[in-house]
């Protein structure tokens, strides 16, 4: 029996067999995006809302593919710069997508798109009070994450590094501390550029990974989605299996007893 | 008939005074589109479109699904 086989991810009481959440931006075409979603095997995809000119029919193919994918939709509040903006966009998303799920983003800085912890917490409190299932995109600050959990967030999404950088897990100490101190599901969101980085996050005990750019901007997005999916599965299995303790000195794995050619007199 | 001037997705727009949001969406060819609306930064639910009368200087945001991360 494979111990990882029945290892489902539970978010707000709903179970997911995939621990890979995929973004839907930056693909060269809707078809390429569709292939990536299928290759990823994901069950939840993020998407956004933007002003639309009625003459533009661009969104129709996009929307059809997402609907046909069967994935749960996780609308975001990307680009919002205050709690008020994020709350309004979340309300618009809930109506448009008929879902209480929201990836809550309140951006505090244009340079690194770092979440504004104060606006984020304010918006999270308000939206949870309105019945939303809030997945906050947050920094790796322990106190912020504790406050978000206390506000009612049943899962958190700390960054690995700034959006779109591909820098991986920038602050392992902070992320390890989050994992040790919080018992809600933690999904690494943003900054992952390589499957090895996703595997490391999963080996550290994170519950899932959300990414977009690394797949969408690969030369072959579907193949990269598959690579990430395998890395996430491998990392999760390794975490469940239990990694060995690291040590500074060598320790032979082959028994030393019975070593041939060895003599007590050193000869 | 008097007119009002407002902002539609940050572009100038004009409508007859007393126009409802439902009629404005029809005029602007959004009526059958998958969109959500906010006026002056506040969400307006679909159920309120008919009774919501637009005013001078209203800032109207009309959004639709796009790819997002």
Topology:
The complex is a heterodimer of chains A (267) and B (69).
Chain A: E1 9-11, E2 14-16, E3 20-23, H1 30-40, E4 44-51, H2 59-69, E5 72-75, H3 83-97, E6 101-104, H4 117-129, E7 133-138, H5 142-150, E8 157-158, H6 172-181, E9 187-189, H7 195-203, E10 208-211, H8 213-216, H9 221-241
Parallel strand pairs in A: 3-4, 3-10, 4-5, 6-7, 7-8, 9-10
Antiparallel strand pairs in A: 1-2
Chain B: E1 3-8, E2 11-16, H1 21-27, E3 36-39, E4 42-44, E5 59-67
Parallel strand pairs in B: 1-5
Antiparallel strand pairs in B: 1-2, 3-4, 3-5
Q: How large, in whole angstroms, is the Cα Rg of chain B?
A: 12 Å
Total DSSP helices of chain B: 1
Helix/strand-derived category of chain B reads: mainly beta
Number of DSSP strand runs of chain A: 10
CATH topology grouping of chain B: Ubiquitin-like (UB roll)
* Broad shape of chain A: globular
Please mark out the parts of chain B with pLDDT under 50 across 5 or more consecutive residues, or reply none: none
What is the typical, i.e. mean, pLDDT of chain A? 95
Low-confidence stretches of chain A: none
Structural class by sheet pairing and helices of chain A: alpha/beta
User: At the fourth CATH level, what is the homologous superfamily of chain A?
Assistant: Aldolase class I
CATH architectural arrangement of chain B: Roll
